[in-house]
Design brief:
Elements lengths: L1 E2 L60 E3 L18 H14 L9 H6 L13 H9 L25 E9 L4 H10 L3 E5 L13 E2 L4 E2 L9 E9 L16 E5 L11 E5 L9 E9 L5 E4 L7 E3 L5 E9 L4 E10 L4 E11 L11 E8 L2 E14 L4 E9 L7 E5 L15 E4 L6 E2 H4 L2 E3 L1 E7 L5
Length: 456
């Protein structure tokens, strides 16, 4: 079991997320001053209560939108010669989600050097690594605490925010992407680019109009942040004319000398833009919960189940002090996932005894895939040394392996530790198997507590 902001990982069943250098982007560009401040922000998104998963509005969206005009675009930065576009994009999207109410600059060095993966800054990364780092409370930390590009990252820094919810929007669902940008902030996405240095010519990029479109079979190799759109952006602005008008406004990590002071347009008809879409919808104060119990520091790397849409999974922990169990966090691996959360406290003995006698503590449905923190309807008081468990019954339409796991795929990319977990899986909530022993994985199920001194 890991507490606080430490690390870990797991798998089995359906396809694993690709962890290799899927988003390599070693571009030698240097950025300069911050983006200009916008005029007046639109009506700020209503701050959701910390216990409510972020839900999207239904009002019509404008035909064009530019976050820069409303003070909701963070500073353009420069990744230099390192393959860190994935971290820059993740943190820029995170920063954008806080604007305009709160301005912050988070450390890319810390995200890329203090995570639970065995990749250097030259080897690239991808969004699931960012998610794992943030959801494990390993970060974010401020840029001032760990500046970029010096190859050093101090130990012992604590997260200044706790990310508790990340929604993964459906592939090529442009309405969902626009709504997320408009209501919550920048959306992290990916594209394929053949650009490797400033001033380089590419048949996919028109430097005169800052317009990019690639329509081909190559997979994405670069992350950027969608911060706006224009449904009427002329197709004639692209070097290779797409089928129609329209483009997303994207923020890059190649400095302000690229594009329009660091921004460029990507056609709606680009093959890769809008396929992977990450929206940071739950960013909470670092002290909202005091403790995190987890065994999946590398996050969602694969899935398990019994060939059906429903599965039960549970993690058992031992309370470290007098505290109150407040919430559980887990992944919805596909859209329209429904869940029931049960709690079993005062467990006696070893093994799964007592899991089938748990009490219902929360239930609901999740529209999109992603990670969600769900508060219990009533907190459960725990005593030091007490064994307790959170059990989730999850139903995911169309899935055969609905539960997210961390596992070692043998590539050496992820640092996976199976020794600190006690996870169980069941097809019916009655008969359980220990996943660390039978499937060599950890369950992605986190549990959050508040210390006793706060509720006495």
């Amino acid at each position: 079991m890991r507490r606080g902001g430490v690390r870990k990982s797991g798998w089995l069943g359906a396809a694993a997320l690709c962890m290799a250098a899927a988003a390599l982007c070693g571009l030698l560009w240097r950025g300069k001053p911050p983006a200009e401040e916008g005029e007046q922000p639109p009506e700020a998104p209503k701050a959701e209560a910390a216990w409510v998963p972020f839900s999207w509005g239904k009002e019509p969206l404008p035909e064009s939108y530019d976050s820069r005009l409303f003070g909701r675009a963070p500073q353009v930065r420069d990744q230099g010669s390192f393959g860190t576009c994935w971290a820059f994009a993740s943190l820029a999207a995170l920063e954008s989600s806080l604007l305009p109410q709160e301005e912050a600059e988070f450390s890319v060095d810390h995200m890329s050097l203090q995570n639970s993966f065995n990749l250097s800054q030259d080897q690239g990364g991808e969004y699931s690594m960012s998610m794992a780092y943030l959801l494990a409370w390993q970060g974010p930390v401020l840029e001032s605490e760990d500046p970029y590009g010096d190859g050093l990252s101090p130990e012992g820094l604590s997260a200044c925010k706790h990310v508790q919810e990340i929604q993964i929007l459906p592939s090529k669902d442009y309405e969902a992407i626009k709504r997320a940008v408009y209501e919550k902030g920048g959306v992290q996405s990916s594209l394929y680019t053949d650009l490797t240095q400033l001033g380089q010519d590419s048949r996919f990029y028109n430097a005169d109009t800052n317009a990019y479109c690639y329509d081909g079979p190559e997979k994405a190799n670069h992350d950027s942040v969608i911060v706006g759109w224009d449904d009427h952006f002329p197709k004639e602005n692209f070097r290779e004319m797409p089928e129609g008008d329209g483009a997303f406004l994207c923020m890059n990590s190649w400095g302000r000398e690229f594009g329009d002071q660091g921004y460029f347009y990507v056609s709606y008809y680009d093959s890769n833009i809008g396929v992977s879409n990450i929206s940071y919808t739950g960013i909470w104060p670092f002290d909202h919960y005091d403790q995190i119990y987890q065994t999946d520091l590398c996050g969602w790397m694969g899935q398990i189940g019994y060939g059906q849409e429903t599965v039960w999974f549970a993690n058992v922990y031992q309370a470290q002090t007098e505290e109150k169990l407040e919430a559980a966090g887990f992944y919805a691996t596909m859209e329209n996932t429904s869940y029931e959360i049960y709690v079993a406290d005062r467990l006696e003995g070893e093994g799964s005894k007592g899991l089938s006698e748990a009490s219902l503590a929360a239930s609901g449905q999740l529209r999109y895939s992603g990670f969600y923190t769900v508060p219990l309807e009533e907190g459960i008081q725990l005593t030091a040394g007490e064994r307790f468990a959170v059990i989730v019954r999850i139903t995911t339409p169309g899935a055969v392996h609905p539960a997210a796991i961390e596992y070692d795929g043998g590539s050496g990319v992820a640092h996976v530790d199976l020794s600190d977990g006690e996870g169980y899986l069941s097809s019916d909530g009655q008969s359980w198997e220990r996943v660390e022993e039978t499937m060599n994985c950890n369950l992605c199920l986190k549990e959050y507590t508040s210390l006793a001194s706060e509720f006495e």
